[in-house]
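re: ur msg from earlier - yeah i can do the coenzyme A complex, just paste it... oh wait u already did. ok heres what im feeding in:
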Amino acid sequence: MSCSLRPVGRAHRARLEQLTRSTGFADDQLVGYACWGPTPGTAATHDLYWIAVDRERQGAGVGSQLLNEVERRLMADGCRLIVVETSSRADYGPTRGFYETRGYTRTATIPGYYAPGDDLVIYTKELATGDLARAAP
Ligand SMILES: CC(C)(COP(=O)(O)OP(=O)(O)OC[C@H]1O[C@@H](n2cnc3c(N)ncnc32)[C@H](O)[C@@H]1OP(=O)(O)O)[C@@H](O)C(=O)NCCC(=O)NCCS
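and the outut:
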């Protein structure tokens, strides 16, 4: 599948919520989204807040295209480090695999963060060289 990326606005809110909850595919062309932003107090670190693909379209390459495009834009903007948070729950195993296959390192875990037995798992990816990512600001 080939995708084009466009900004989304207030008018897309219902569809974004639908995708976030991974409900079925509706009738428009929005099949996935990603949102990200700079991490306050850091030197060019960015958080990937959310990435979601319509359940009916998952596994078809949409998420990879979105992530590639996010990374391409962040690199162009001089982003150094990208941070992603997800859950340790078994049903998030495919999501963790998605990040790991795409060069994200499991950097930290906060046990019981979401709920007892449901840890916060933090993935990071250096978009520049390792030296640059570790250099003092
Ligand atoms: C994680 C997600 C964004 C990946 O997007 P996608 O379009 O399904 O992924 P792609 O088709 O580009 O890539 C498929 C890869 O993702 C993995 N994957 C993760 N979740 C998957 C799912 N629900 N269905 C199919 N593949 C999935 C596959 O194992 C595959 O890994 P591989 O390439 O290493 O073999 C998407 O599955 C999704 O929206 N999941 C639910 C919401 C979520 O967990 N978001 C992240 C919150 S931190």
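cool cool. Residues 91 and 118 are 11 Å apart (CA to CA). ping me if u need the other ligands too
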